[in-house]
Each structure stands twice: as structure tokens, then as C-alpha cells.
Design a protein that fits this description.
By secondary structure, the protein is mostly helical. The chain has 4 helices and no strands. The chain starts with 8 loop residues before the first helix and ends with a helix.
Amino acid sequence: MITLEGLNFRQKSIAEALWRAESKDVLRALAQVYGAREVRVVQEMILAAALDAVEDTDQARQVLKQFSK
């Protein structure tokens, strides 16, 4: 589970709707209601929080190691 901190009420509403979204149509509707830019910002915040939660990077290191030779 990820946690987003410092969101205002509007951003929290967007994040909750994004989390429940099950189709591109829902994403389009959110962009129309809240504005594409604001929805994109919250999407990027969710992605960044998810990436911060990744702890097991051994496999990625092994894959990248072959390119550094």
C-alpha cells in the first residue's frame, strides 16, 4: 500500500478516484472534471510513491549490470 502525504482535498479526491478507476473512460472523465493537468500531477505522485516503496532491486541491478560492461 502506498501513502500520499500533503494532498489537498481536491487531490485526495482525484487520487481515490484514480485508485478505483477501471477503464480509460473513467480517466478521461476525471480529466474533464478536474482538469487533465491536475489529474496527471496526482498520477505522477502515485507513481513516485509506488517507486519509492520498491525495496527489492537485486533483479534490476543484475539486468543493468550487463549493460555497464
